[in-house]
Structures are given as structure tokens and as C-alpha cells.
Amino acid sequence: MGKLIYMDNAATTFVDKRVLDAMIPYLSDKCFNPSSIYDGAQDVHEALDNARETIAKSLNASPREIYFTSCGTESDNWAIKGVAHANADKGKHLITSKIEHHAVLHTMKALEREGFEVTYLDVDSNGFVSLSELEKAIRPDTILVSIMYANNEIGTIEPIKEIGEICRKKGVYFHVDAVQAYAHVPIDVVAENIDMLSVSGHKFNAMKGTGFLYIKKGVKINTFMDGGAQERNKRAGTENVAGIVGMAKASEIAFAEMDKRIKHEIEIRDYMIDRILKEIPYSKLNGDRNKRLPNNLNIGFEFIEGESMLLALNDLGVYASSGSACTSGSLDPSHVLLAIGLPHEKAHGSLRLSISHETTMDDAKFVCDNLPKIVERLRSMSPLYEDFVKNK
Amino acid sequence: MAYSEKVKDHYKNPRNVGEIENASGVGTVGNAKCGDIMRMYLDIDENTGIIKDCKFKTFGCGAAVATSSMATELVKGKTIEEALKVTNKAVMEALDGLPPVKVHCSLLAEQAIHSALWNYAEKKGIKIEGLEKPVNDVSELDDDDDEF
Predict the structure, then answer these.
(1) I want to staple A333 with a disulfide (CB 3.0 to 4.6 A). Which of A48, A342, A347, B63 is the partner?
(2) Which residue in A23, A331, A326 sits closest to B7, CA to CA?
């Protein structure tokens, strides 16, 4: 086997060497608790302040609006449950979409069990939420709308600014799960009318166990963890200093290199989409062709199943992901692919390749050169393909 | 979730993939909803009742391919009576086990053999002792093999 070709960056990313270097001191010489009083601890506190400022600036937010958490899932849980519980006197209705991450969907389900009511908006065949459907769904007792910035499976980027405008006009809080989008595309929480925004560090070359929640000043939200005075009394617990410093470093690097990265990723993404669709019959791009994350490709191949594709790619040293049931541990294929209208057998046959700024054109060519053979081999043993050919 | 070396070998190099022209019996089980469809072809010697050849086609995950492949190996050269003894447990054991979420694949392989035999019996107008009408959806079967 040759070198590893990692095309699962939507699952997690490698920690950047510069990020690791920035973190090391806070795991050794500067291990002090930032809440302590001595000089060394104050230096650590200052490092936290700087990290908060770097991250705030990247979103056009104020440092007071950035709250560090342990991951994207925690941020989603806090934003949704925190606002629901703090505003239950105003109403008990929330709105989200059918293609959200489980961190949002299962949080909504938990609230339903408590007596809240949730509307799950349909999306169109490219995965877009309809603005008019959203507007119609907002009721006098609606307290929160939660829509993801970009979808983790099909890469579709939602009309966040327009959704934010509607929420602002109707006086409803707007939460955005930006786990896949932050540090990959520019985000401006002011211009895009965003009240809360969830981010995870390990999706942009920081370490796992880091994340943050942007909470716009004035949003009525409950404390997530009770304890000490950390994070403005809203999220107690000694800060993951090294992780936070690393996340800020990763953010700084990602934003400094963003234009270059986007250009590079789009070039490779489009090369791969064009070649795969041209060279493999009965294949289709899932998600929108243009309004999609620069690093995401999701292609459906008829008559074959995703896991067997992943295993074949694995044997070639290519790491990827699929919407097939077999990757989820349940028998149902991806809820996202079903929501964009794919029948079960097509949803099972999808392949997600999430590239990065480090993916090379040679990597892309290798995958494009080998994929047709894999698909052909799997189709040659597929009863669905046999039936299709016989009935043609 | 880890596959055994035998499972890996069978999905990388599946045995007996293909179709049999004018097969004695053909059976298809599973559905696209749960992501696995298996089709088995049997060539049965009418005089001896021996399965001379067995081929398969499968839409499904690595375990689905491996269990189909192993099932064809296990029934080839056997009598119908012996083939009925190739249960999902036998297929799993021959593969050195399956992850719990993949146990249904071995049930599907067992049912695919039964389905092809059922088709053979129907065509011949005979009754095969011990063969029950196969089910298409293995989730209907009681599955007590979760801890395997």
C-alpha cells in the first residue's frame, strides 16, 4: 500500500503542527489554573483572553460573546436547551430542519419529551431549507430556530443571512450549527443575523475536546454547567487551556490562509466531481453544485452499497465515509439523504469525500483513477444491477 | 466494529460470484431498505440431489458479501438435506464470527439458500422435508444471536 489519502476531514482533521507547538507550553511550564492569582496563572489567563479575542474577531463578534465548551455537540445542546428553558414562559415551540446533525435533532427530541413542540422543516432535493416554509412555520409561541450553516454530509450551505433576517423580523432567536462551516468559509454573525453559533475545534485542525458557542449579547439563555465562575458564570469548569489556545491558533491559521485554501479545495473538488460524474455511469452529485462547502463531495452510485465501497477504498489506502446504514450501526441509511428525497437503495450507495487544504491533485487523480474499477466490480456482483441490465 | 480476517478475505476475494444460466433454483432475499439484497443460484443434480454449483450476487456491506460467499462455499457439493443444515450460525462460525450489528447478514445468507431451494421445489412440484417458506425480511426472524 502506498501513502494514506485521507478524505474524511468532515469527520475529523489532523492537528496542525503549529497548533500543537502553541499548545505544548500550557501542558507543561504554563500548566497553572487560569483562576489562580500568582503571576504564572495570570499569564495563562491572558492566553485565554487572547484566544477569545482571536476567535471573536474571526466572526465579527465581541470577546464577551465567546464561550468555550468541550465540543460542537455541547455547544448545540447548550444553545438549544439553554434558550428553550430560559424562554419557556414565552412559548414552547422550536423550529429546525430534517437534515440537522444528531447533536441538534436528538436535543430537540429530548425537549419534546419535556413537553416542547418542534417543527422539522423539509428541505428540497439539494438540501435547502425553504424561506417561505420557515416563515409560515413561525408562530407566536416560537422561541428558537436552529438551522445548520452547512450540512455535514452533502455540504449544502443554507441561506443563513436570509433565515436570520426572518428570525430577527419575527423576534425569534436564531441558532446556527456551524461545525462544518467555521474556519472553512467566512462567517459574520452580525451581517448574517446570527444569535448563537456552535463550533467544534477538531474540524479545523485543533484537537478533539474543544469547541465554543457564540452567544450574542442580550440573548436570554440558561447556565449550562453549574460550578465556578468560568465563562462568565455560564459554563463552569476549569478551562481546557491548551485546547483553547490551540483552537485559537488553528482559527488564526485557517483565516489567514482561507482564500488560498478555498481556491485550492474548490479546484480539487470540482475536478473530482467532473471526472467521477463523467467516468462513472449512473452516478449523481448529492447536494448543490455551487452553494456547497469547498471541501465536500458527496456522490451517489446506483446499484451498490456504501460500506463495500469504503472497504475497497480502504484497501487502496483511501479513507472516506458513506451515508450507508452500515456505517451508522443501524439499518437505516442517512436521514439527510432520505430527506433530500433519495430512495433507500440510493441512499445506501453514497460516498462522501471530504478533502482539505492538504489534499493534492495527485491524491484526487488517484481516487478518480481507481473509483470506476471499484464501482464496476461491485456492480458486477449486485443483483440490483443485474435486474437493471436485464430490464433495460 | 472489527471484521475477522476470514470476513475480510471473503469480501476482498468473494467466491462463486455470478449467475447460473437455467439454474435449478434461484432465490432473492432482503430489501434495499435495510441495505442488503442477496440472490443465490443453485445447480442441483436431479438424480442425486447434490448441489453441483452455487453462485451469488449481493448488494450490501462487507459482511453481506462475506456471508454470501461463505454460504455458497458451504453448500457446494452438499445434498439438499445437508444444505439445510447450513444455518446462519454455521456461516458465522465458518467466518470466525461477525460484529453484533452484522448478524442479520448471516441470517440473510441462510434465507437466501432456503429461498433458492424453495424455488427449486416449487418448480419441481416437490416438497423438501424440513424446508419452511423463507422470509424476505430477516428482521422478522427472532434473533437471539446478538451476543455472538
Answers:
(1) A347
(2) A326
Handedness of CA A69, A73, A77, A80 (dihedral sign): positive
Q: Measured between CB atoms, which of B11, B18, B32 is closest to A348?
A: B32
End-to-end CA distance of chain A: 39
Measured from the Cβ of residue A290, the count of other Cβ atoms closer than 10 Å reads 8
CATH number of A257-391: 3.90.1150.10
- What would the 3-class secondary structure string for A89-122 be? CCCCEEEEECCCCHHHHHHHHHHHHCCCEEEEEC
Which amino acid belongs to residue B95?
L
In angstroms, what CA-CA distances link A222 with A114, A146, A228, A240?
16, 17, 15, 22
Q: Which residues of A touch B104 (CB under 8 A)?
A: 331
Residue written as cell 491559521? A253
Q: CA-based Rg of chain A, rounded to a whole angstrom? A: 22
- Nearest CB to B35; choose among A315, A333, A385: A333
Considering only the beta carbons, identify the residue of A304, A330, A331 that sits closest to B59: A304
List the pLDDT tens digit at each of the 392 positions of chain A. 568 999 999 999 999 999 999 999 999 999 999 999 999 999 999 999 999 999 999 999 999 999 999 999 999 999 999 999 999 999 999 999 999 999 999 999 999 999 999 999 999 999 999 999 999 999 999 999 999 999 999 999 999 999 999 999 999 999 999 999 999 999 999 999 999 999 999 999 999 999 999 999 999 999 999 999 999 999 999 999 999 999 999 999 999 999 999 999 999 999 999 999 999 999 999 999 999 999 999 999 999 999 999 999 999 999 999 977 655 556 678 999 999 999 988 899 999 999 999 999 999 999 999 999 999 999 999 999 999 999 98
- Where do the structural domains in chain A lie, given as residue ranges? 17-256, 257-391
Architecture of domain B5-125: Alpha-Beta Complex (3.90)
Q: Residue A72 in contact with residue A148, Cβ under 8 Å?
A: no
Distances (CA, A) of B9 to A26, A59, A383, B71: 47, 50, 21, 14
* CATH classification (class only), A17-256: alpha beta
Contact status of A315 with chain B (Cβ, < 8 Å): yes
Taking the Cβ of residue A2 and every Cβ of chain B, the question of whether any pair is shorter than 8 Å is answered with: no
The residue whose grid cell reads 492566553 is A47
Tell which residue, A246, A289, A320, A262, has the closest CA to residue A155: A289
Residue B62, beta-bridge partner list: none
- H helices of A60-189, in order, are 72-86, 102-113, 131-137, 160-170
Please give the grid coordinates belonging to residue A158: 443554507
Could you say which residues from 321 to 360 on chain A have a Cβ atom under 8 Å away from some Cβ of chain B? Answer: 324-326, 329-333, 343-345, 348
- Paired sense of beta strands A66-69 and A211-215, if any: antiparallel
Active site residue A368: no
